[in-house]
Design goal:
alpha/beta, two-stranded antiparallel ribbon, 24% strand, binds uridine 5'-triphosphate, 13 strands, Spore Coat Polysaccharide Biosynthesis Protein SpsA, Chain A
Amino acid sequence: MPHRVTKAIFPVAGLGTRFLPATKSVPKEIMTLVDRPLIQYAIDEAREAGIKEFIFVTSRGKGALEDYFDHAPTLEQELRKKGKDDLLDILKTTNMDSGEIAYIRQHKALGLGHAVWCARRLIGNEPFAVILPDDVIAAETSCLKQMVDAYAETGGNMVAAMEVPPEKASSYGVLDVADDMGHMVSIKGMVEKPAPGTAPSNLAVIGRYILSPNVLTNLNKLESGAGGEIQLTDAIADELQQENAVYGYRFRGQRFDCGSKSGFLQATVAFGLAREELRDDLSAYIRDIVKMENAAE
Ligand code: UTP
């Protein structure tokens, strides 16, 4: 029976250049979908999956992210005085218990694999999850929970996988599938950002992983891969060389690439429409602008 997964790494040390100039002073993970920062969606997903220890790999300029999880006594006092219990309840959902959360610095943005490796001493010898907060997934059962449940049966390593159009495959880590079992595939290879036309399948890895601690050992060699970065994909592919299992998990849900402007805007609309108090206004507005655009054509 595989070990339970109780630790998750949140690599948030990237530069977020696609959102400049905003990310000059606002960490990408603090940018909001409706009224909640990206990082809050990631934390909620992890909690639903049974995660108890939250490890952030941060970098210079991410102070706002650390502050976000602190208690805000002055604000809380003010809301209490005004009898705004509903807002107090919302604030409470963001508080983390002491010792539940840890921050490690990645001193240089050397790649996702390097960011994960920076947390190795906090992981020790147990399986762990990795969540990239800029992949936001709307799902009835959270994506990581689906994976944790599947992992309880399989052990090994597991990555979230999603079909992408062939022309987009070169932006992702792509799976070389050995056996397709429907929700799950077993993998015989993985390649990060394959050159156009060379992808082994159209099944791409997105930002949820459950990994064996052996992946951290694989990262020890700190070898650069695609784009000159130390790639997590390569360290997972090393597992296959050592005959350790890697599975791709086709999750149920809709993934938004909130690391890109277009994905972020789509997520804003989708999450706005999912809110009862916003739905009518927002959908009326969308209908209006579509009508105007059609009329102008
Ligand atoms: P991205 O590839 O989206 O890079 O990283 P980025 O720096 O965040 O954004 P752009 O491309 O410049 O706009 C994917 C995830 O890996 C983390 C990022 O914080 C993000 O969550 N990451 C990436 C690190 O923590 N360290 C790195 O060295 C690279």
